[in-house]
Structure formats: C-alpha cells, structure tokens
Amino acid sequence: MDSLSLFIIVVSVVLAVAFKWYLFRRIQRWIDQDLIRGLSGQDMQLHSQLMATDLSLREAGIKRAERHRRLEQLAQDFEPERQTTVSPDQ
Q1: What is the dihedral of CA 17, 57, 64, 41, to 10 degrees?
Q2: What mean pLDDT comes out for the span 60-64?
Q3: Fewest CB within 10 A of the end CB: N or C in the chain?
Q4: DSSP 86
C-alpha cells in the first residue's frame, strides 16, 4: 500500500468515528428533550423549569442517569402545585 491509500483509510476512519460520536450525542439530546416533554406534558411552566434544571445539571457535570432521576423527582414534586391551580368547581 502506498501512502495515499493509508492516508485515505486513516481519514475515512477518523471521519466515521467523529460522525458516530456526533450522532450518538444528538440522539442523547433528543432522548433528554423527549423525557422533559413527557414529564411536563402541556405545562409550559414545568417545561421551562425542567429545561433550566437540566441545563444547570449538565453544566455541573452530573451524569445522565442522575439528571434523569432528578428531573423525574422535580416533576413529581411539581405535580401537587399543578393540581392546586385547578378550580374547585371542575
């Protein structure tokens, strides 16, 4: 094999690994966003609170599993507040 062939192989492998890493990260973000949308439902206040919490946890270096657990706990703790806003005649 000549040096050009080796160069093409190396560049192809590096690009394939970089693309796979990029897709993996994008899919993780989509999963995180889907979790937040699922937890918040139609409540925009909860959605924005979960987004802000997720961002702060991500910046703090908390692992995804722990972030998901904390977001689920936050959504459960927010649940009674959401039910108290419903008028008693409904």
Answers
A1: -110
A2: 94
A3: C
A4: S
C-beta of residue 39 within 8 angstroms of C-beta of residue 75: yes
- Supply the pLDDT for residue 11: 98
Alpha helices in 1-90 (DSSP H): 3-40, 44-59, 64-84
Contact yes or no for 36/58 (Cβ under 8 A): no
Q: Is 54 exposed, middle or buried (0-12, 13-18, 19+ CB in 10 A)?
A: buried
Q: What are phi and psi of 87, to 5 degrees?
A: -70, 150
**One-letter amino acid of 77:** D
Residue (of 47, 67, 69) closest to 57 by Cα position: 67
Query: Residue 34 corresponds to which tokens in the numbers above?
Result: 């889907």
* pLDDT category of residue 68 using cuts at 50, 70 and 90: very high
Residue the block writes with tokens 């918040």:
40
